[in-house]
Write the C-alpha cells for this entry.
Amino acid sequence: MALQAKFRQFDEAIKLKRFDENAELREKRDRVLTRLRDGLAKQFPSTLNRPTFTSFNQGSYDMGTGVKPLNGDYDIDVGLVFNVDISKHGPIEVKEWVYNAVKDHTTDVRFRRPCITVFYVQGGEPKYHVDLAVYAKDWTGTLHLAMGKQHASADQRQWLTSEPQKLVELVASKFSGDDAEQFRRVIRYLKRWKDCQFPAEGTAAPTGIGITACALNWFAAEKSSTWNYNTYSNQTTYDDLVATTRLVERIRQNFVHTYANGQYSDRLKVTLPVPPGNDVFARMSNQQMVEFKQRIDTLFGTLVGAGKRDENEASVMLRKVFGDAFPA
C-alpha cells in the first residue's frame, strides 16, 4: 500500500493536464490559431477563395496520457481540417498555406514531413512548440493527413489516410472507471521512463504513441478486492507496480527475431489500431531496437526486483528507471 501511494504521488508529479484543465496551454494554442487565420486572410484577401478550416486537439493531451517534459519544451499537437478537395489540392500546397501564414510568428518555424512546427524560445531555451498537422477529407468523409516536406519529390508527397480522433475514442473506450485511470497512469509511467532512458532527439526512443499502442494491446488492470467490515462492502485496491510489470513483460515477450533492414534482428512490431494502421516502431533501426530491448529488459528486472524489496529499497530501485520524480 505504501508503494502504491508513491506511484500515485509519482503520477501527480509527472501528469500533464488536458487542455480543458490548463489555461496556459490553451492560450498558447489559440495564439497560433489566431496567427494562422490572420495569415490566411493576407494570402487570400477575398473571402470567396479563402481556405477555411476547423481545428481539434490531438495526441496525448486529448487522450489524458501526457507527461510533463523533462526539458520544459511542451509539445502542443493541433489538427487542422481544411475544407478543400484533395483531388484538386496537393498536400504540399495546403501545408504551404499554413507555413506561409505562421512562418514569421516566431524566429523558428519548420516545414516538417508530418506537420508545420512553430517553436517558442525564452532566454535561449526552448519553452514549447506547436505541431500543426494538416488534414482534409475525401468525398466519403475519410480524413487524410498532408505528408511531405516542402520541396519533396512527387513520390514523397501524399494525402495519408489518418484518423487521430478515432485513436482518442479508442483509448477513452478501452477501459472504464478506475480501471481506465490505472491504464492511463501506467502509460504515463512508461512515457516518463522513456524520457529518462533515451535521448530526446532522433528515432532512438520508442514514441509515445508506440507506448500507447502497446498498452492498448496488452494492458490489464491489476487490482484486488477485500471486504470492509466497517462499510459492509468490497473495497478495491489497485497495484500499479504489478500492472506496469506485467505490461512490460508482455512487451518483452512480443519481440520477434525477424529479417529487417538487410539482417536478422529482434524487433517489436505493433500496428496502430486505427488508420493509417502502420507499425508504430517501423522507423527504429535494428540497432535502436537492440537498445530498446536491453532497456526494456532492465526495466522489467527492476520492476520485478522492486516487488521483492521493502518500501525504501524499492523506491531507490524505481528512481533509477523513472527518475527523481519518483518519491524517495
About this structure: DSSP finds ten helices and eleven strands in the chain. The radius of gyration is 22 Å. The longest helix spans residues 23-43. The chain has a mean pLDDT of 91.
